[in-house]
Amino acid sequence: MPVWKPTQEWPDSDVFIIGGGSSLRGFDWSLLHDEYTIGCNMAFTLGEKICKICVFGDFSWWRAFKDDLKAYKGTVFTNKAERQLLGIPWLWTMKRYPQGLHTDGLGWNGNTGAVAINLALLLGAKRVFLLGFDMKRIEDRSNWHDRIIRPSTTKSHVYQGFVQDFRFVARDWKAKFVDREIINVTRDSGLGPNVFPWVDPDKLWADRRAMRQEDLRVHQMFINQDNERAE
Q1: Which of 121, 197, 198, 186 is nearest to 159 (CA)?
Q2: Model's pTM, two decimal places?
Q3: I need a labelling partner for 191 at 20 to 30 A (CA). Which of 97, 100, 133, 216 fits?
């Protein structure tokens, strides 16, 4: 189990965190093909084209899905340093802190979403966008997938605990990563705008489509200019 020393592999980039909330049911995953992404837990089942990095922090989840995770072609991180994880060459680990955000480890804060935020910031993210951070049931579902090992975690008091712990993340974000942004793209999230600012998902994806089209236009313009010079 190699230990990862933080390096900014994605400097000043936009990074999308794929949470577990059921608001992502029906989501157009192709929107993430060209993005830097970190997926929480079962997001690895979407494949490495969508979920570039998978992160987990729950050992019981690892025991349930380790065989499936081994076949995943992306990068896997955890801050759960159990003895049984030693010697696994494809699993990267970092020191685990109970709360907050850190520069030499990953804060747990009771849920994998917070771990993913900390990892994104250490990778150099300028803006971290949160997808599927519902913090509540939607249409009596707790997740966008059906492979749930702990139905008890879907009770309302558990979500309330998550929200409370995210306040430690918000505190350290403003103290330790003051020039970085964390933006919630989850419609009607249980994490109110007093924790993280919110942006409308429709506007975000419309803006990114327009930005990508402009990038393609500029790229094609340079190609045309090079072709003209060659003639």
Answers
A1: 186
A2: 0.90
A3: 97
Handedness of CA 114, 119, 124, 127 (dihedral sign): negative
> Any residues with CB less than 8 A from the CB of 88 and at least 6 apart, and which?
1
Q: Which of helix, strand or coil describes residue 31? A: helix
For the stretch 114-165, pLDDT in tens is 999 999 999 999 999 999 999 998 888 889 998 887 655 556 788 888 999 9
Reduce the DSSP state of residue 193 to 3 states and report it: coil
Where are the domains positioned within the chain? 13-199, 202-231
Write down the number of H helices and E strands in the chain. Answer: 4, 9
Question: How does pLDDT run across 37-89, given as a tens digit for each residue?
Answer: 999 999 999 999 999 999 999 999 999 999 999 999 999 999 987 877 878 99
Region of 109 (left: φ > 0; alpha: ψ -120 to 50; beta: rest) is left
Give me the phi and psi of 36, to 5 degrees please: -80, 125
Tokens of 181: 């942004």
- How far are the Cα atoms of 39, 45, 64, 71, 222 from residue 144, in angstroms, in the given order? 13, 12, 18, 21, 42
Quickly tell me which residue has 């309302």 as its tokens.
156
Residue 134 has φ and ψ, to the nearest 5°, of: -70, -45
Determine if residue 113 is left, alpha or beta; phi over 0 gives left, psi from -120 to 50 gives alpha, anything else beta: alpha
